[in-house]
Amino acid sequence: MSSPIERSLKIELRLPSSHPQLLEGLETWLRLGLISDAQVRQICQQSLVCQLVLQPITQPESEIASATSNPVAALAVDRNPPQKMRSPNLIARILESLQAELSVRWLLFLGVFLVVVSSGVLAATQWQRFPAFGQYGVLFAYTLSFWGLSFWAGKQPNLRLTAQTLLIVTLLLMPVNFWAMDSFSLWKNPYDWIAIAIACPTLTAITILLCQNRLFVTNSPLGKLPLINILGLSYLHWGWKLPGFPLIAVYLATVGTTLITVHRHHSRIPFRNADDRRVGLGITLPALVVVYGLAVVLVRAIFVVRIDITQLGLAIGICGWLVTWLAQSGRRLGRLESNSTPQLPWEVLGGILLFIGWLVSVEPSPWQAIAVSGLSLWFFSRRLQEYVTHTSLLAIFAISLQMVWLGWRLVPVGLQEWAIAVGTKLTHSQHTP
């Protein structure tokens, strides 16, 4: 009697590869002997394998042995989702926050500041033994050193932030150099003239090169007017020993800077390039350098030369208006580029300067206070166009009211008495003039 013919049964199943019980079913079939180990491996290789990134992770020998003996279980383990990493503890979070706050740029600025201050303290002990050109030579050597380091770091691909920081420090030292040349009176003898003849062309050339550097403006070099503005704020430090010239230099700096900045805006050439990076709270690098140069002129006039601050009320008000204008222009430009940048601190600083300019001139010089009040009206009217708030409306009303009072103070006393007498006669109010 012949043995019955064994027939194989073909079963075709269509299951999703992400079915949660698929691997368990294959393991059950393997345990029951309905499917072989080779067939399980073939199914897994064809349908259940994805590309993995291998990492050098040490695996215990017990897990390796179990995976080798039971491939279905190993695949089931691999398909499990990875566990989430534990959140760091409080100390780790504090350290990460502190590391984020202490950026590389501010550490570089701190290092540069410490080097300059420590060297200045060391030189101060023997300062009087040096002639005037030798004393200025220390500052000139510092400036050349920072420029040379910024030039070298700019050639290194991994020192871009360091190069930009040194570039900014070099630009910030430019007005200080011209201030020092004027303070040391380097035109008194021929030896000092040699120092001026070397320093002036060198510093001018360095300023031009730095303003054309792509670390300063990333798209294209600055135009002629901003470059003239930056150089002018440095050269205006000369001649302050002449009578009356410090006051003229302050108003030339403030009015000239404001006109150049506004002219570039209305010429559709904003004081930044299309992709020029912003620094700090939205102010661009060229604008920051100009504001710094303007601040140096004011600081020297008020605290060093001791000009009567009541004569500088309008200049302080113009500086405050310029800061608010830059902040408002930067906010509108950021809104157009869908890149909102915080401008409130700069507007607050500009508002404080406007108030100081009005305060120091309201009593001795009403016409300066009227001019500062007009700048304040412009500032609050622009804010009212962007944000309709009761504060802006109240400020506009108060400023307009006190401008009437300031205008009445400008009228001569005799004309005031005549106007009061005529008004009293016309209104028949002799008893209540």
Protein traits:
two-stranded antiparallel ribbon; 433 residues
- How large is the count of helical segments? 17
What is the helix/strand order?
HHHHHHHHHHHEEHHHHHH
Largest sheet: 2 strands, antiparallel
Multimerization state: single chain
The proportion of residues forming helix, as a percent range, comes to: 55-70%
Q: How much is the average pLDDT? A: 78
Structure description:
- The chain is flat and about 130 Å long.
- It is mainly alpha-helical.
- The termini are far apart.
- The model is unreliable at 72-85, 269-277 and 336-341 (pLDDT under 50).
- It is built from 17 helices and two strands.
- The chain has helices at 22-32, 37-47, 61-69, 71-79, 90-101, 104-124, 132-154, 160-183, 190-211, 224-235, 245-266, 285-304, 313-336, 344-361, 366-386, 390-410, 413-427, and strands at 278-279, 283-284.
- Helix 8 (160-183) packs parallel to helix 12, helix 10 (224-235) runs parallel beside helix 12 (285-304) and helix 15 (366-386) runs antiparallel to helix 16 (390-410).
- The protein has a two-stranded antiparallel sheet.
- Helix content is 68%, strand content 1%.
- A hairpin with a 3-residue loop joins strand 1 (278-279) and strand 2 (283-284).
Question: What layout of secondary structure does this protein have?
Answer:
Blueprint lengths: L21 H11 L4 H11 L13 H9 L1 H9 L10 H12 L2 H21 L7 H23 L5 H24 L6 H22 L12 H12 L9 H22 L11 E2 L3 E2 H20 L8 H24 L7 H18 L4 H21 L3 H21 L2 H15 L6
Antiparallel strand pairs: 1-2
Helix pairs in contact: 1-4, 3-4, 6-8, 7-8, 7-9, 8-9, 8-10, 8-12, 10-11, 10-12, 11-12, 11-13, 12-13, 13-14, 13-15, 14-15, 15-16
